[in-house]
Amino acid sequence: MKNILPRVRLAVLCAAVLATSVLVRADYYVAxxxxxxxxxxxxxxxxxxxxxxxWNSTVKPALSSGALTVWFANxxxxxxxxxxxxxxxxxxxxxLKATTSGSVTLSTTSSFQSILWLYGCQNMELNxxxxxxxxxxxxxxxxxxxxxxxxxTRNITVMHCWFENLTNLSLGAVTTGANHRVTFDTCHFSSVxxxxxxxxxxxxxxxxxxxxxxxxxxxxxxxGEYVRFRNDTDYAIVDNCSFHSTAAAWNSPFxxxxxxxxxxxxxxxxYGTNYQxxxxxxxxxxxxxxxxxxxFGPNAYARLLAFAPPIMQWEHPTIVFSVGVFANIVVGSLWxxxxxxxxxxxxxxxxxxxxxxxxxxxxxxAAAEKAGDNADHTQYRTLGLLCTCYGGFILLLMLIPNPLxxxxxxxxxxxTIGGIGLWLLRQSRKKAALLQPD
Length: 438
Prior knowledge:
Layout: H1 4-24, E1 26-31, E2 47-48, H2 52-62, E3 68-72, E4 75-77, E5 82-85, E6 94-98, E7 104-108, E8 116-119, E9 122-127, E10 129-133, E11 138-142, E12 154-159, E13 162-166, E14 172-176, E15 180-185, E16 188-192, E17 201-205, E18 210-215, E19 218-222, E20 227-229, E21 236-239, E22 242-245, E23 255-256, E24 275-278, E25 281-284, H3 285-289, H4 292-296, H5 300-305, H6 316-344, H7 348-362, H8 376-396, H9 404-435
Parallel strand pairs: 1-2, 1-3, 3-6, 4-7, 5-8, 6-9, 7-10, 8-11, 9-12, 10-13, 11-14, 12-15, 13-16, 14-17, 15-18, 16-19, 17-20, 18-21, 19-22, 20-23, 21-24, 22-25
Helix pairs in contact: 8-9
């Protein structure tokens, strides 16, 4: 009996752990409108996505038991603004996920400020959702009201989401304020603008937000600065992103760190100090098309491709340089290969002279016929010494204080020239040895 009791206790303990583990991860379901009972416990009984009782009384308490996923049924959600307040759990993540990535669209009319407002929320992930429509301020609002203590949303990951055709914004597709550790990964921003286009951004980081990470995202045709970090936004990263402008109307700076209200009596904004902008690709398509202006007159690209705006003034120097390089390559190549057509029309006497000239170039000179040929080794030696001295001097420049890349540049150039010099000196010794009498 004594041996059985410990086993029973162990079995009960294992059953309790198993039951707990089953409850650790739960799934809930929402749809554009309630389905079935609307309890949100299954896809056939999905809750309406704007049902705050479901979010606050069902999902929020369940987070205390473990991480969970709220599945959004495929479809269009355009009834109104979803605003979650003080939602989330510091340890257990809540994921809002599309049933099929890209098949869930959240939208609103202009009477709503935002499509999704995460107000003082934490530890959440959004995955596979599209944002579009005519919201008046932003598509996703992570900002806060200063009157609410610690209302900044934190520990948020937005993955594989789309922000597109947002045409009525006043701030940006995403606005932040006093946020902490917000990450955008593999998201797509396109055609983001508003009544005052230059004031609208794809991502507007502000209000002393920290650790904003924008990774593997692409941005196309944003009205204002594509990504802005303002007012003491710090520890921000933009890495492996692509920025595209397909017309002059979208030619705004891609990443900016502006400073406003820095002079008394409004001196209440400051620069952040830690930023990483790396591995990004920035393309103005109008630069390529704009090369046509040199050949067909001012703003020819507008006439030929029906682009309304003229070329931007600050693009002119780059375009002039690009056209010059392009013209040199094309014209020079055409002239070189085209000269063969001119050569065929010349008289036979001219052909004979040309053939005789190239025949002489191909004919080797016998060493015995020229007394000066024995001096080859001295020429190798002279050039070798010269290259070695030059290469050695350039290598000495490595001693100048420089970043590692600067020192490596001197090493490469000096090593290459010095290496050629050593090779020439070796050839000189070989030539000299061949001239020694047997």
